[in-house]
Amino acid sequence: MQIPGRFAWKVEGAELSTASCDVVQPGFVKSWTSENAEIKAALQVKTRRHFLCSIPCDLSACTTMQAIRETIYSFKARWFDTHAQLNRQYNVRYFVDTHNVEIFDTKTSRLFLKKSDCPATLSAKDFFIGSKVLIYGRHFELQDYLDPFTAEKLGRQQQKSVLVIKADMVRNIGAVLDFLSHQQFAFSAVKMLQVGRPHAEKLFELLRGTSEFDTRVNQLAKAPVVAMELVQENCLDKLKQVVNSLSSRFNAQTGEIESAASVLEAQQLRSFYFETQHAPTAIFENCTCCVVLPHVFKEGLVGEVVSAIQRDGSVHIAAMELFILDRTTAAEFLEVYEGVVPHFNESVDHFTTGPCLAMELVGQHTNDVVAQFRASAGPWDVEMAKELKPQTIRAKFGHDRVRNAVHCTDLAEDGVLESQYFFDILSRRQVRS
Questions:
Q1: 343 an active-site residue?
Q2: Where is the signal peptide (predicted)?
Q3: Staple 177 to which of 156, 162, 251, 303, CB 3.0 to 4.6 Å?
Protein backbone atom coordinates (compact mmCIF):
# COMPACT_ATOMS: atom_id res chain seq x y z
CA MET A 1 0.00 0.00 0.00
CA GLN A 2 1.80 3.12 -1.21
CA ILE A 3 1.30 6.50 0.50
CA PRO A 4 0.19 9.07 -2.09
CA GLY A 5 1.40 12.61 -1.38
CA ARG A 6 1.68 14.27 2.02
CA PHE A 7 -0.76 13.75 4.85
CA ALA A 8 -1.15 12.97 8.54
CA TRP A 9 -4.01 11.57 10.53
CA LYS A 10 -5.54 12.09 13.95
CA VAL A 11 -7.11 9.41 16.12
CA GLU A 12 -8.42 9.87 19.70
CA GLY A 13 -6.71 13.25 20.00
CA ALA A 14 -3.28 11.91 19.01
CA GLU A 15 -1.38 12.99 15.93
CA LEU A 16 0.11 10.00 14.09
CA SER A 17 2.83 10.26 11.49
CA THR A 18 5.70 8.29 9.98
CA ALA A 19 9.23 9.21 10.96
CA SER A 20 10.41 9.62 7.39
CA CYS A 21 11.95 12.76 5.89
CA ASP A 22 9.04 14.38 4.04
CA VAL A 23 6.47 11.77 3.17
CA VAL A 24 4.13 12.79 5.98
CA GLN A 25 3.37 16.40 6.92
CA PRO A 26 0.97 17.88 9.54
CA GLY A 27 -2.72 17.81 8.66
CA PHE A 28 -5.91 16.32 10.01
CA VAL A 29 -8.09 13.35 9.14
CA LYS A 30 -10.86 12.26 11.48
CA SER A 31 -10.10 8.54 11.35
CA TRP A 32 -7.82 6.04 9.69
CA THR A 33 -7.75 2.28 9.52
CA SER A 34 -5.33 -0.28 8.16
CA GLU A 35 -5.50 -3.90 7.07
CA ASN A 36 -2.20 -4.42 8.85
CA ALA A 37 -3.03 -6.06 12.20
CA GLU A 38 -0.24 -4.39 14.16
CA ILE A 39 -1.12 -0.91 12.96
CA LYS A 40 -4.83 -1.51 13.45
CA ALA A 41 -4.22 -2.59 17.04
CA ALA A 42 -2.03 0.43 17.65
CA LEU A 43 -4.70 2.79 16.32
CA GLN A 44 -7.18 1.43 18.85
CA VAL A 45 -5.04 2.54 21.81
CA LYS A 46 -6.96 5.30 23.59
CA THR A 47 -4.02 7.16 25.08
CA ARG A 48 -2.04 9.96 23.48
CA ARG A 49 0.79 8.46 21.45
CA HIS A 50 2.97 9.23 18.49
CA PHE A 51 3.64 6.19 16.29
CA LEU A 52 6.95 6.26 14.47
CA CYS A 53 7.36 4.01 11.44
CA SER A 54 10.74 3.14 9.94
CA ILE A 55 9.30 2.35 6.49
CA PRO A 56 7.88 5.57 5.01
CA CYS A 57 6.25 4.30 1.84
CA ASP A 58 4.66 0.98 2.69
CA LEU A 59 2.68 0.86 5.92
CA SER A 60 1.35 -2.62 5.16
CA ALA A 61 4.91 -3.93 5.18
CA CYS A 62 5.82 -2.15 8.41
CA THR A 63 6.55 -4.54 11.27
CA THR A 64 8.49 -2.23 13.60
CA MET A 65 6.54 0.49 15.35
CA GLN A 66 7.54 2.48 18.41
CA ALA A 67 4.97 4.10 20.65
CA ILE A 68 6.11 7.22 22.44
CA ARG A 69 3.91 8.92 24.99
CA GLU A 70 3.58 12.69 24.72
CA THR A 71 1.66 14.69 27.28
CA ILE A 72 -0.66 17.27 25.71
CA TYR A 73 -2.96 19.60 27.65
CA SER A 74 -5.98 20.72 25.58
CA PHE A 75 -8.31 23.61 26.45
CA LYS A 76 -11.26 25.54 25.16
CA ALA A 77 -10.16 29.17 25.17
CA ARG A 78 -11.28 32.62 24.18
CA TRP A 79 -9.53 35.78 23.06
CA PHE A 80 -11.19 39.21 23.29
CA ASP A 81 -10.94 41.04 19.98
CA THR A 82 -10.75 44.71 21.00
CA HIS A 83 -11.48 45.94 17.46
CA ALA A 84 -14.64 43.87 16.98
CA GLN A 85 -15.49 44.04 20.72
CA LEU A 86 -16.30 40.34 20.93
CA ASN A 87 -14.82 37.10 22.23
CA ARG A 88 -13.41 34.67 19.68
CA GLN A 89 -13.24 30.96 20.49
CA TYR A 90 -10.15 28.78 20.08
CA ASN A 91 -8.79 25.39 21.06
CA VAL A 92 -5.34 25.62 22.66
CA ARG A 93 -3.06 22.59 22.90
CA TYR A 94 0.10 22.70 25.03
CA PHE A 95 2.76 20.03 24.44
CA VAL A 96 4.34 19.58 27.87
CA ASP A 97 7.40 17.53 26.91
CA THR A 98 8.55 19.77 24.07
CA HIS A 99 7.15 23.09 25.38
CA ASN A 100 5.21 23.71 22.17
CA VAL A 101 1.78 25.21 21.62
CA GLU A 102 -0.83 24.87 18.88
CA ILE A 103 -4.01 26.93 18.44
CA PHE A 104 -7.10 26.04 16.38
CA ASP A 105 -9.76 28.59 15.36
CA THR A 106 -13.12 26.90 16.03
CA LYS A 107 -15.15 29.39 13.98
CA THR A 108 -13.21 28.97 10.75
CA SER A 109 -12.20 25.37 11.51
CA ARG A 110 -8.64 26.26 10.59
CA LEU A 111 -5.30 26.04 12.29
CA PHE A 112 -4.63 29.50 13.76
CA LEU A 113 -1.11 28.75 15.01
CA LYS A 114 0.75 25.67 13.90
CA LYS A 115 2.76 23.75 16.48
CA SER A 116 5.38 26.28 17.56
CA ASP A 117 7.69 27.07 20.44
CA CYS A 118 5.76 28.23 23.48
CA PRO A 119 6.94 31.60 24.90
CA ALA A 120 9.67 31.20 27.52
CA THR A 121 7.59 33.21 29.99
CA LEU A 122 5.10 30.32 30.21
CA SER A 123 5.43 26.90 31.81
CA ALA A 124 3.15 23.92 32.37
CA LYS A 125 1.88 25.31 35.68
CA ASP A 126 0.46 28.36 33.83
CA PHE A 127 -2.05 26.19 31.98
CA PHE A 128 -5.17 25.77 34.12
CA ILE A 129 -8.84 26.72 33.96
CA GLY A 130 -9.25 30.47 34.44
CA SER A 131 -5.66 31.27 33.52
CA LYS A 132 -4.83 33.90 30.91
CA VAL A 133 -1.79 32.90 28.87
CA LEU A 134 0.03 35.39 26.65
CA ILE A 135 0.92 33.68 23.37
CA TYR A 136 2.55 35.81 20.70
CA GLY A 137 0.84 39.03 21.74
CA ARG A 138 -2.62 37.65 22.52
CA HIS A 139 -4.09 36.77 25.90
CA PHE A 140 -6.02 33.50 25.67
CA GLU A 141 -8.32 32.81 28.63
CA LEU A 142 -8.51 29.06 29.28
CA GLN A 143 -12.19 28.33 29.95
CA ASP A 144 -12.62 24.56 29.99
CA TYR A 145 -10.88 21.25 29.33
CA LEU A 146 -11.11 20.02 25.76
CA ASP A 147 -10.79 16.30 26.46
CA PRO A 148 -11.07 13.76 29.31
CA PHE A 149 -7.30 13.27 29.49
CA THR A 150 -6.64 16.93 30.32
CA ALA A 151 -9.60 17.07 32.70
CA GLU A 152 -8.43 14.01 34.61
CA LYS A 153 -4.76 15.02 34.63
CA LEU A 154 -5.15 18.66 35.61
CA GLY A 155 -8.28 18.18 37.67
CA ARG A 156 -6.03 16.50 40.22
CA GLN A 157 -2.91 18.56 39.68
CA GLN A 158 -4.46 22.02 39.56
CA GLN A 159 -7.20 22.17 42.12
CA LYS A 160 -8.38 25.64 43.18
CA SER A 161 -9.31 26.88 46.61
CA VAL A 162 -9.76 30.16 48.46
CA LEU A 163 -7.77 31.48 51.42
CA VAL A 164 -8.99 34.49 53.41
CA ILE A 165 -6.83 36.69 55.68
CA LYS A 166 -8.75 38.83 58.18
CA ALA A 167 -8.35 41.35 60.99
CA ASP A 168 -4.86 41.61 62.52
CA MET A 169 -3.47 38.94 60.18
CA VAL A 170 -3.68 41.41 57.26
CA ARG A 171 -0.62 43.23 58.59
CA ASN A 172 1.33 40.02 57.91
CA ILE A 173 0.17 39.71 54.30
CA GLY A 174 3.71 39.93 52.92
CA ALA A 175 4.85 37.00 55.05
CA VAL A 176 1.72 35.05 54.08
CA LEU A 177 2.37 35.59 50.35
CA ASP A 178 5.99 34.56 50.84
CA PHE A 179 4.97 31.38 52.68
CA LEU A 180 2.52 30.46 49.91
CA SER A 181 5.14 31.08 47.20
CA HIS A 182 7.62 28.81 48.96
CA GLN A 183 4.90 26.13 49.14
CA GLN A 184 4.60 26.34 45.33
CA PHE A 185 1.04 27.71 45.23
CA ALA A 186 0.09 29.63 42.07
CA PHE A 187 -1.93 32.83 42.52
CA SER A 188 -5.11 32.96 40.45
CA ALA A 189 -6.64 35.97 42.23
CA VAL A 190 -5.72 38.30 45.10
CA LYS A 191 -7.88 41.14 46.38
CA MET A 192 -8.12 43.37 49.44
CA LEU A 193 -11.72 44.40 50.08
CA GLN A 194 -14.09 45.77 52.70
CA VAL A 195 -17.04 43.45 53.32
CA GLY A 196 -20.19 45.23 54.47
CA ARG A 197 -22.16 43.81 57.38
CA PRO A 198 -25.17 42.74 55.24
CA HIS A 199 -22.85 40.73 52.98
CA ALA A 200 -21.08 39.21 55.99
CA GLU A 201 -24.38 38.18 57.56
CA LYS A 202 -25.44 36.54 54.31
CA LEU A 203 -22.16 34.59 54.12
CA PHE A 204 -22.60 33.23 57.65
CA GLU A 205 -26.37 32.75 57.45
CA LEU A 206 -26.08 29.09 58.46
CA LEU A 207 -24.55 30.19 61.78
CA ARG A 208 -27.38 32.60 62.62
CA GLY A 209 -28.75 31.90 66.07
CA THR A 210 -25.48 30.40 67.32
CA SER A 211 -22.83 31.95 69.55
CA GLU A 212 -20.43 32.12 66.59
CA PHE A 213 -22.61 34.27 64.35
CA ASP A 214 -21.87 37.74 65.73
CA THR A 215 -18.19 36.94 66.28
CA ARG A 216 -17.65 35.77 62.70
CA VAL A 217 -19.68 38.60 61.17
CA ASN A 218 -17.85 41.27 63.19
CA GLN A 219 -14.49 39.73 62.38
CA LEU A 220 -15.21 39.87 58.64
CA ALA A 221 -16.92 43.26 58.49
CA LYS A 222 -14.90 45.43 60.88
CA ALA A 223 -11.73 45.78 58.76
CA PRO A 224 -10.39 45.07 55.26
CA VAL A 225 -9.67 41.43 54.40
CA VAL A 226 -7.43 39.87 51.75
CA ALA A 227 -8.93 37.01 49.74
CA MET A 228 -6.80 34.78 47.52
CA GLU A 229 -7.68 32.08 45.02
CA LEU A 230 -4.80 29.62 44.83
CA VAL A 231 -3.95 26.71 42.55
CA GLN A 232 -2.04 23.54 43.37
CA GLU A 233 -2.38 19.79 43.40
CA ASN A 234 -4.70 18.74 46.23
CA CYS A 235 -5.12 22.43 47.06
CA LEU A 236 -7.99 22.03 49.55
CA ASP A 237 -6.07 19.75 51.90
CA LYS A 238 -2.79 21.63 51.55
CA LEU A 239 -4.43 24.95 52.40
CA LYS A 240 -5.82 23.43 55.59
CA GLN A 241 -2.22 22.66 56.55
CA VAL A 242 -1.24 26.22 55.61
CA VAL A 243 -3.94 27.61 57.90
CA ASN A 244 -2.62 25.55 60.81
CA SER A 245 1.00 26.54 60.13
CA LEU A 246 0.30 30.26 59.76
CA SER A 247 -2.07 30.36 62.74
CA SER A 248 0.62 28.82 64.92
CA ARG A 249 3.40 31.01 63.51
CA PHE A 250 1.55 34.30 64.04
CA ASN A 251 -0.57 33.23 67.03
CA ALA A 252 -3.70 34.11 65.04
CA GLN A 253 -7.12 34.04 66.62
CA THR A 254 -9.74 31.57 65.39
CA GLY A 255 -11.13 32.67 62.04
CA GLU A 256 -8.44 35.26 61.25
CA ILE A 257 -7.09 32.96 58.57
CA GLU A 258 -9.26 30.28 56.98
CA SER A 259 -9.71 28.32 53.77
CA ALA A 260 -12.52 26.54 51.96
CA ALA A 261 -13.46 23.16 53.38
CA SER A 262 -14.76 21.67 50.12
CA VAL A 263 -14.87 22.21 46.37
CA LEU A 264 -18.40 23.60 46.68
CA GLU A 265 -17.38 26.04 49.40
CA ALA A 266 -14.37 27.14 47.31
CA GLN A 267 -16.73 27.98 44.45
CA GLN A 268 -19.07 29.85 46.81
CA LEU A 269 -16.21 31.85 48.34
CA ARG A 270 -14.86 32.73 44.90
CA SER A 271 -18.27 34.07 43.92
CA PHE A 272 -18.57 36.00 47.20
CA TYR A 273 -15.13 37.64 47.22
CA PHE A 274 -14.27 38.04 43.53
CA GLU A 275 -17.57 38.19 41.64
CA THR A 276 -19.58 40.35 44.05
CA GLN A 277 -19.18 44.14 44.24
CA HIS A 278 -17.78 45.11 47.66
CA ALA A 279 -16.71 48.49 49.02
CA PRO A 280 -13.23 49.48 47.80
CA THR A 281 -10.45 49.94 50.32
CA ALA A 282 -8.55 52.49 48.21
CA ILE A 283 -8.91 56.06 49.51
CA PHE A 284 -7.45 57.99 46.53
CA GLU A 285 -5.79 60.62 48.72
CA ASN A 286 -2.12 61.23 49.63
CA CYS A 287 -1.30 58.00 47.82
CA THR A 288 1.06 56.46 45.32
CA CYS A 289 0.66 53.42 43.08
CA CYS A 290 3.03 50.47 43.20
CA VAL A 291 2.84 47.52 40.80
CA VAL A 292 4.83 44.34 41.45
CA LEU A 293 5.94 43.13 38.02
CA PRO A 294 5.35 39.67 36.47
CA HIS A 295 8.97 38.49 36.72
CA VAL A 296 8.73 38.78 40.52
CA PHE A 297 5.78 36.34 40.51
CA LYS A 298 7.70 33.93 38.26
CA GLU A 299 10.64 34.02 40.68
CA GLY A 300 8.42 33.39 43.72
CA LEU A 301 9.47 36.68 45.35
CA VAL A 302 6.18 38.60 45.50
CA GLY A 303 5.89 38.04 49.26
CA GLU A 304 9.41 39.33 49.88
CA VAL A 305 8.71 42.49 47.87
CA VAL A 306 5.44 43.14 49.73
CA SER A 307 7.20 42.53 53.06
CA ALA A 308 9.88 45.06 52.09
CA ILE A 309 7.14 47.61 51.39
CA GLN A 310 5.46 46.87 54.72
CA ARG A 311 8.73 47.45 56.55
CA ASP A 312 8.79 50.97 55.11
CA GLY A 313 7.24 52.90 57.98
CA SER A 314 6.33 55.87 55.79
CA VAL A 315 3.56 54.03 53.89
CA HIS A 316 0.88 51.43 54.48
CA ILE A 317 -0.99 49.28 51.97
CA ALA A 318 -4.53 50.61 51.57
CA ALA A 319 -5.55 48.52 48.55
CA MET A 320 -4.22 45.46 46.76
CA GLU A 321 -5.38 43.41 43.77
CA LEU A 322 -3.94 41.01 41.21
CA PHE A 323 -4.40 41.97 37.56
CA ILE A 324 -3.50 40.36 34.23
CA LEU A 325 -3.11 43.15 31.70
CA ASP A 326 -3.43 42.98 27.94
CA ARG A 327 -1.20 45.21 25.84
CA THR A 328 -3.85 47.86 25.26
CA THR A 329 -4.46 48.26 28.98
CA ALA A 330 -0.77 48.23 29.87
CA ALA A 331 0.02 50.84 27.21
CA GLU A 332 -2.85 53.01 28.42
CA PHE A 333 -1.61 52.88 32.02
CA LEU A 334 2.00 53.66 31.06
CA GLU A 335 1.09 56.25 28.42
CA VAL A 336 2.44 59.22 30.43
CA TYR A 337 5.89 57.58 30.48
CA GLU A 338 6.16 57.20 26.70
CA GLY A 339 9.12 59.19 25.45
CA VAL A 340 10.33 59.69 29.02
CA VAL A 341 11.34 56.21 30.11
CA PRO A 342 13.82 54.27 27.93
CA HIS A 343 12.68 50.86 26.70
CA PHE A 344 9.03 51.96 26.89
CA ASN A 345 7.71 49.30 24.49
CA GLU A 346 9.68 46.55 26.24
CA SER A 347 8.22 47.68 29.58
CA VAL A 348 4.68 47.57 28.18
CA ASP A 349 5.33 44.07 26.85
CA HIS A 350 6.66 42.88 30.20
CA PHE A 351 3.53 44.10 32.01
CA THR A 352 1.54 41.62 29.88
CA THR A 353 3.69 38.52 30.49
CA GLY A 354 1.97 37.42 33.70
CA PRO A 355 0.15 38.57 36.82
CA CYS A 356 0.84 42.01 38.31
CA LEU A 357 0.05 42.94 41.92
CA ALA A 358 -1.14 46.54 42.13
CA MET A 359 -1.14 48.35 45.47
CA GLU A 360 -2.28 51.76 46.67
CA LEU A 361 0.26 52.97 49.23
CA VAL A 362 -0.87 55.76 51.55
CA GLY A 363 1.51 58.11 53.37
CA GLN A 364 1.78 57.61 57.12
CA HIS A 365 3.94 60.53 58.20
CA THR A 366 4.48 62.41 54.96
CA ASN A 367 2.52 64.61 52.60
CA ASP A 368 4.72 63.64 49.65
CA VAL A 369 4.23 59.89 49.60
CA VAL A 370 5.06 59.66 45.88
CA ALA A 371 8.59 60.99 46.38
CA GLN A 372 9.01 59.06 49.62
CA PHE A 373 8.19 55.69 48.08
CA ARG A 374 10.06 56.46 44.87
CA ALA A 375 13.18 56.77 47.02
CA SER A 376 12.40 53.43 48.71
CA ALA A 377 11.90 51.75 45.32
CA GLY A 378 15.21 53.06 44.01
CA PRO A 379 16.35 54.21 40.56
CA TRP A 380 14.61 52.53 37.61
CA ASP A 381 18.07 51.61 36.27
CA VAL A 382 18.87 48.51 38.33
CA GLU A 383 22.63 48.78 37.84
CA MET A 384 22.53 52.32 39.17
CA ALA A 385 20.31 51.21 42.05
CA LYS A 386 22.74 48.46 43.04
CA GLU A 387 25.65 50.90 42.92
CA LEU A 388 24.09 53.91 44.65
CA LYS A 389 21.07 52.58 46.61
CA PRO A 390 21.79 48.89 47.38
CA GLN A 391 19.07 48.64 50.05
CA THR A 392 16.23 49.68 47.74
CA ILE A 393 13.61 47.31 46.32
CA ARG A 394 14.87 47.52 42.74
CA ALA A 395 18.47 46.91 43.79
CA LYS A 396 17.45 43.75 45.69
CA PHE A 397 14.87 42.27 43.33
CA GLY A 398 15.42 43.87 39.90
CA HIS A 399 17.46 42.59 36.95
CA ASP A 400 17.50 45.33 34.32
CA ARG A 401 15.66 48.46 33.19
CA VAL A 402 12.58 46.46 32.16
CA ARG A 403 12.52 43.76 34.84
CA ASN A 404 13.13 46.17 37.70
CA ALA A 405 10.80 44.55 40.27
CA VAL A 406 8.23 47.33 40.73
CA HIS A 407 6.59 50.21 38.96
CA CYS A 408 5.97 53.24 41.15
CA THR A 409 4.34 56.60 40.44
CA ASP A 410 6.88 59.18 39.30
CA LEU A 411 5.05 62.50 39.69
CA ALA A 412 3.08 63.62 42.76
CA GLU A 413 0.07 64.69 40.70
CA ASP A 414 -0.20 61.19 39.17
CA GLY A 415 -0.46 59.24 42.45
CA VAL A 416 -4.24 59.45 42.72
CA LEU A 417 -4.76 59.00 38.97
CA GLU A 418 -2.71 55.79 38.78
CA SER A 419 -4.42 54.40 41.88
CA GLN A 420 -7.85 55.19 40.41
CA TYR A 421 -6.91 53.47 37.16
CA PHE A 422 -6.40 50.15 38.93
CA PHE A 423 -8.78 50.30 41.88
CA ASP A 424 -11.69 52.13 40.31
CA ILE A 425 -11.64 51.46 36.57
CA LEU A 426 -9.94 48.05 36.23
CA SER A 427 -11.22 46.60 39.51
CA ARG A 428 -14.84 47.27 38.56
CA ARG A 429 -14.18 45.80 35.14
CA GLN A 430 -12.83 42.58 36.69
CA VAL A 431 -15.97 42.11 38.82
CA ARG A 432 -18.22 42.57 35.76
CA SER A 433 -16.23 40.09 33.68
A1: no
A2: none
A3: 303
